[in-house]
Design goal:
There is one protein chain. By secondary structure, the protein is mainly α. Helix content is 73%, strand content 0%. The chain has helices spanning 2-14, 18-94, 103-110, 124-132, 141-152, 154-176, 199-207, 219-222, 225-262. Helix 1 (2-14) runs antiparallel to helix 2, helix 2 (18-94) runs antiparallel to helix 4 (124-132) and helix 5 (141-152) runs antiparallel to helix 9 (225-262).
Length: 263
Amino acid sequence: MLKLFRNIRKKLLEQGKTANYLKYAIGEIVLVVIGILIALQINTWNENRKASIVEDNFFKNVLIDLKKDEEKLTYYNKFYSSRISYLDTLLTYVRNPNIIMGIDKFGMYTEPLFYASDPTNNATTFESAKTSGAFNNFKEKELLKDLSQYYADFPLIEQSFSSVLRFIENQFEPLMYILPESYMTDETGALVINEGDIQDFYDKIASIKDYRNLTPNYESVLRTSRMENYLIGDMGRSFNALGKIRARQAMLNKLKNEIKQYD
């Protein structure tokens, strides 16, 4: 093609048709520019298509991560809702000395309070795309902004869970260790909510015969102001954690709906 253009230009010059040559040269330049513009347009379209595929795959994988988060948040919601219920029951007995709880019930309602939950954050897809710079080519900027805020808020969950754990370690465990744990049976963990199977632990404790015949004076712990203060402190921290969990669940559902609309 280039050889053809050169032959045409050479022929026009040889024939002395300068005006025609100039017209032809301008036309040739226009054709070259148009060709370059078309090539650039095709390249831009191709790059946009690739970016669109990357963005689509990103949001599909984010939905998978959010599904994992949703399952965890459902567990956390159940954990802290149940914890508040147990604390409420114990506080009722603390404040009403006319009702007797009994050692077995005392053990069942205090045992779950030894447990805490560890928050997890499934942000692999988001962090990988952020690190690679893929967000620069994404079109859904507002959705990315909401998603970024969702992951940025995770420390709020961590802080509230950590507050409960520290309170257990610093206040509840020292309080309960006053009592010998001979009250524990294979049913003591019946109300415990935990992600792992812990029944084997209680079965093992129950299988070890205690020949001391101790009768733990649980009321010496239950009826104290120290126990009341602990229950109220734990309840406040648990309500705080539950509020953070439910706020995160609401944000997660909003994100899922936005991503589905994007699809």
